[in-house]
Design goal:
InterPro entries: Ald_Oxase/Xan_DH_a/b, Ald_Oxase/xanthine_DH-like, AldOxase/xan_DH_MoCoBD1, AldOxase/xan_DH_MoCoBD2
Keywords: Molybdenum, Oxidoreductase
Strand content: 25-35%
Radius of gyration: 25 Å
Strand order of the largest sheet: 3-5-1-13-10-11-12
Shape: globular
Helix content: 25-40%
Oligomer: single chain
Number of strands: 28
Pfam families: Ald_Xan_dh_C, MoCoBD_1, MoCoBD_2
EC number: 1.2.7.4
Largest sheet: 7 strands, mixed
Domain Aldehyde oxidase/xanthine dehydrogenase a/b hammerhead: 10-119
């Protein structure tokens, strides 16, 4: 067992709701029960310490706009509290604070809001031609960009063209711990404790929205963070409201999200794309290029990942293949659903589903073996630049496929009456722009400080090992401190499969800089007193890298009930370097479970009024042990990355591989093609 996990599994962890400052008051948010409408009247509660509406705040959440896109985009920023309109169920309208959290429901009942309900737009395809949900805009299209590159004339040279249209329902991130935020002001400085993956992300959002200087905000992650899956990467309206309430009341303010709030909240939901794509190839199986349209349901506002989602998926739809051209229209459309959030993979699984279903269809069209069609078109281990300019770095692309093929061939023999698939992918690891780390010799130990923080990963164990290798001292003389904006000058965060890889590289760089500063090649434990107080700080810069994988899924389908069961799963991933085998295994198995569940059970659905049909975590389709794969086997390839840690992130590898692997395996088992996720039982039995 990893040492730092022991207090968590024995119930001794400390989470955001375990922190209760003296005189703390509790924030609650009244949310819209309708998907679209005009607010006619708001009546504030009488028994609240403070109540806030749009008239009290009049501020918006940030919209992360790339300059080259912002010129042509239609932008709708999200108000922290609804102005005269609401645009999704769950949109914050009024916030209030009370001195006892058990008063929240009683005070909420005092709030009265009158609406004029309007017809909502829920489906992203219908949104294209529907009445704009924002009256100030001409259409519901926020982003519309053609991405083209390579030799487009090769379209006319293709002997075979296969096409696929797939609609992915949105799914809820649902970490075990919901979001939470505590803040108080002291000498004009905002102090924050928050359940987060990225303290600097929270700090930057608060700074921008509140209009205060960075040195006036201190952000500390809770001692333990109960999962995130991307959901805890930045700021939220509730964080802003808590800061305003704290300033006005002169007291600490605490907000803990309920599970029902998470189901309808901003950035809680990911996926939601519709792809309509074609793959062009020659008769002998050489892939020429890809073409089509990707529509992303970015929700009601340009907030969260929505602005980049369709472009990101389009750029990754090349997969690990030597394509010679690409022509993709990427659209981001407004709907009366919550703004899209980062959900584990955040574009990587969606892209993998696109390219792997097309490649599998091509193999069937040509009568080629599933492995051989992939091997024929796989990029070399020396890397590749795609037609859209994505630079894929050298890695073990061929070795992961060769290793996975052995499992695939064996599974085909053992499970000759089941659905067996093999897929390949190249997971982008978001190591850019880098990560910061500081090291200081103090009190007989070497202490490392990083702004990123774990939310289910054993970073301290990994970083301690790397530091020990560089410094030449035992791991018990090394301490790792993470999760604060106050312990380093600059940090990015833990998301995009990055933290172990880039954080580990920053630790190595800081340790190397420390040795350089004291002009030695290594330390002895006796040196720690001699060099007391010496420190070094770095920001290790890096470009993005890729982590290839090849996964195999074995699926059984009950034709009478439509129930899908993943019997066995094999994940072969290039991890660059195995830094912590137990943690890698946990990350991949957990990711596989989430990718699989999107295929067989998981979805956030809406009725014609835009009302969510999921009222609890169970309704969303979160898998239990009954739905989980019976066995997940993990295997690793070590093709060192160019970073100091030599590793490659795996946080999203399981999800990226499992979505296409299980989807295609279901098609193999049923001998049918499907056009959506999840593949509901009635789609199989109909």
């Amino acid at each position: 067992m990893i040492q730092e996990h022991l207090p968590l599994i024995t119930g001794k962890g400390s989470y955001i709701d375990d922190i209760s400052p003296k005189n703390v008051v509790y924030l609650s948010v009244v949310r819209s029960p309708i998907a679209r409408g005009i607010i006619k009247r708001v009546s504030k509660p009488e028994n609240a310490l403070i109540s806030l509406t749009w008239e009290d705040v009049k501020i918006y959440m940030p919209a992360r706009l790339f300059p080259d896109l912002a010129r042509n985009a239609q932008v709708a920023k999200m108000p922290v509290l609804a102005d005269d309109r609401v645009n999704f169920v769950g949109q914050p309208i009024l916030a209030f604070a009370v001195d006892d959290r058990y008063k929240i429901e009683d005070v909420a009942e005092e709030v009265s809001i009158d609406y004029e309900e309007l017809k909502p737009v829920v489906d992203p395809e219908e949104s294209l031609n529907a009445e704009p949900i924002h009256p100030s805009l001409k259409t519901n299209i926020s982003i519309d960009q053609f991405l083209e590159g390579g030799n487009l004339s090769l379209r006319s040279k293709a002997d075979v063209v296969v096409s696929r249209k797939i609609k992915q329902h949105r799914i809820v991130s649902n970490p075990m711990e919901t979001k939470g935020f505590i803040c108080w002001w002291e000498n004009d400085v905002l102090n924050v404790y928050v359940s987060t993956q990225a303290p600097f992300g929270v700090k930057n959002d608060l700074r921008e929205v509140l209009g205060i200087s960075p040195e006036k905000i201190r952000v500390y992650s809770a001692p333990n963070v109960g999962g995130g899956f991307g959901n805890k990467s930045g700021g939220y309206p509730e964080y802003v409201l808590a800061a305003i309430a704290s300033l006005k009341l002169g007291k600490p303010v605490k907000w803990i999200e309920t599970r029902s709030e998470m189901l309808v909240n901003t950035q809680s939901l990911g996926r939601g794309e519709v792809s309509d794509m074609k793959l062009y190839a020659t008769r002998d199986g050489e892939i020429l290029g890809i073409e089509g349209t990707i529509i992303a349901n970015i929700g009601a506002f340009d907030y969260g990942i929505g602005f980049i989602a369709p472009l990101f998926i389009a750029r990754l739809s090349n997969g690990p293949y030597k394509m010679k051209f690409a022509s993709i229209r990427a659209l981001g459309v407004f709907t009366n659903t919550p703004p899209m959030g980062f959900y584990r993979g955040a574009g990587r699984p969606e892209a993998a589903l696109i390219h792997e279903t097309l490649v599998e269809d091509l193999a069937e069209e040509l009568g080629m073996d599933s492995v051989e069609i992939r091997r024929k078109n796989l990029i070399g281990d020396n890397g590749y630049i795609t037609p859209l300019g994505v630079r894929i770095d050298p890695a073990g692309y061929n070795e992961v496929l060769d290793t996975a093929e052995k499992y695939y061939r064996k599974a085909k023999e053992v499970y000759n009456d089941k659905g067996v698939s093999i897929i390949t992918f190249a997971e982008i690891v978001r190591t850019s722009p880098g990560e910061g780390a500081r090291v200081k010799i103090e009190n007989g130990k070497v202490n490392f400080y990083l702004g990123l923080g774990p939310h289910g990963q054993a970073y301290a164990s990994t970083f301690r090992r790397l530091a020990s290798e560089v410094l030449g001292i035992s791991q018990d003389k090394i301490e790792i401190m993470t999760g604060s904006s106050e312990i380093v000058k600059e940090g990015i965060g833990s998301f995009g499969s990055r933290a172990g890889t880039i954080g580990g590289s920053a630790v190595i760089a800081a340790a190397t800089e420390l040795l350089k500063k004291i002009n030695v090649n290594s330390l002895s434990e006796g040196d720690l007193t001699k060099y007391e107080g010496i420190e070094a700080e770095v920001f290790y810069k890096a470009d993005d890298i890729f982590a290839p994988g090849a996964h195999v899924a074995v699926v059984d389908v009950d034709e009478e009930t439509g129930f899908i069961k993943v019997l066995e799963y094999y994940a072969v991933d290039d991890v660059g370097r195995v830094m912590n085998k137990e943690e890698i295994e946990g990350q991949i198995i957990g990711g596989v479970l989430q990718g699989m569940s999107q295929v067989i059970i998981e979805a956030m659905r809406y009725d014609e009024r835009g009302i969510p049909l999921c009222s609890s975590i169970a309704d969303c389709g979160v898998p239990t042990a009954l739905e989980a794969p019976l066995k997940v086997n993990t295997d690793y390839v070590e093709y060192p990355s160019q970073l100091l840690s030599k590793s490659r992130g795996v946080g999203e590898a399981g999800t990226t591989g499992a979505l296409p692997a299980v989807f295609i395996a279901v098609e193999k088992a049923t001998k049918r093609k499907f056009d959506r996720t999840p593949i509901d039982p009635w789609l199989i039995t109909s």
